[in-house]
Amino acid sequence: MSAAPKSQPKYSRRRPEFTPCYKLVQNHLSTFLADRDAEGRPVPDYVKKEFEAFLRCGILAHGFLRLKCSCCHEEKIVGFSCKRRGFCPSCCAKRQAEAATHLVQNVLPLVPYLSLASSADTNLSSASRSPCATGSNAIANSTEKSTLW
Asked: How confident is the model at residue 3 (pLDDT cuts 50, 70, 90)?
């Protein structure tokens, strides 16, 4: 019995202009900046530049590459990215993935790792809430019990 051929993943262009975050920033940035100026608390220039770069990131009108496969001659258009570190979700995700790859391949030793997550009920009534320290201790104790080496 032969194995079924694996389908190649298809590239689909990221369209940031249709995301809620992009629309929010696009529609309200100028008002936000004007309000901050009117209050006497202007936004620092580096923050303005982050927002402006975010609004250009991936938008074809601000630059793109046309890539063509030398075998099948299929063409793809890829918008330029802002490559910023502060606000752009797409570029931040790329940097996180690159950093994680670097850590795994070049920094961390080749040993098994344990990943733990915990959560607490946020709907407790104020009468039954325990202080933060008690909650932290409970999580630490349960983690200790579940990770005995």
From this structure: low
Beta strand 64-68 with 75-79 is antiparallel
The Cα–Cα gap between 118 and 144 comes to 13
In a domain, 101, yes or no: no
pLDDT (tens digit per residue) in 41-56: 999 999 999 999 999 9
- Indicate whether 25 belongs to any domain: yes
**Distance in angstroms (rounded) separating the CA atoms of residues 20 and 79:** 19
Judge whether 1 lies within some domain.
no
Give the pLDDT confidence of 78-120 residue by residue, as tens digits: 888 888 877 788 888 888 888 889 988 999 888 887 777 766 6
Tally of structural domains, the chain: 1
- Give residues with Cβ within 8 angstroms of 89, minimum separation 6: 21
DSSP annotation of 104: I
Residue 44 inside a domain? The answer is: yes
Task: Determine the structural domain holding residue 34 and report its residue range.
Answer: 16-81
